[in-house]
Amino acid sequence: MPGDTTTSRPLGVALTISRHDVTHHFALRAATYDRSSSWCTDSALGELLLDMTAPRQGDRVLDVACGTGLVSRLFTGRVAEVVGVDVTEEMAEQAGPHLSRLVVASAEDLPFEDDEFDLVVCRQGVQFMDLPAAVEEMVRVVRPGGRVVIINLCAYDERDRAEYFEILRLRNPVRRHFFLPADLTDLLREAGCEPEEARSYVSVEDVDVWSDNGAIEEERREAIRAVYRDASPDFRELHAVREDDGRFVDHMLFVLAAGIKPSLPRSGPADS
Ligand SMILES: C[S@@+](CC[C@H](N)C(=O)[O-])C[C@H]1O[C@@H](n2cnc3c(N)ncnc32)[C@H](O)[C@@H]1O
Description:
Elements: H1 19-29, H2 43-53, E1 60-64, H3 72-75, E2 81-86, H4 89-95, E3 101-104, E4 117-123, H5 133-141, E5 142-154, H6 158-171, H7 181-190, E6 194-206, H8 207-210, H9 218-229, H10 233-238, E7 242-244, E8 247-260
Helix pairs in contact: 6-9
The protein binds S-adenosylmethionine.
């Protein structure tokens, strides 16, 4: 749920996760990040985002938590301006060549004017952020009538929630939030957007490749395998888990949730 924070758990998770913890984690991953999940460079997922956002030549696009610029690159050359913002320099410097402008800053305090962008996108970023503050910032900097799109891995539903969240937590110890599909739309609505649509995409991941992210130890990778080995029938079915000689393949769910910033401030209770 949005707002969940990490509590003390096995395998050395800290009670609180600092900004430094996040940048340290992604600095370790920066060199190999683009190869760390099949979804990173999955062109079908990219096409789905382009189809949802229908970018126009004159658009100004902001990619929040741009990382190495994999999402930014989808828009480069199609729009007037692509700005990327991220807290981890080692990730963001790889995005630089694909951007009109790169800003190293946190999503919770975006150094942009109100209404500056036509489109704000954020893929696999909100799980590390202060919520709802970061999404409120995304809505603040998009123009009235403009779109905010959040793209994130989610559990399918209550049946796989506990096991999948445990797998995600083991794979990324600096992750603070875990989502069900409706949570992304709720985040947009609560930050002031009118929900527009939400689409799903299933990404096929070889768990051994996916867990080899350069920032976690073998002990955690083995703990991830153990969750798959002991997975419930519901989890196995929802994730269409395949096992071959101790290696697992998972069908992970992405949700792409879009909202539109209202053109007029939303009315409060009628004045009496
Ligand atoms: C999983 S990567 C996603 C990168 C990119 N959006 C993509 O889809 O490939 C997460 C990124 O979020 C960045 N990040 C985490 N917390 C952030 C924050 N509070 N503000 C800005 N960026 C943040 C990290 O530095 C990292 O580059």
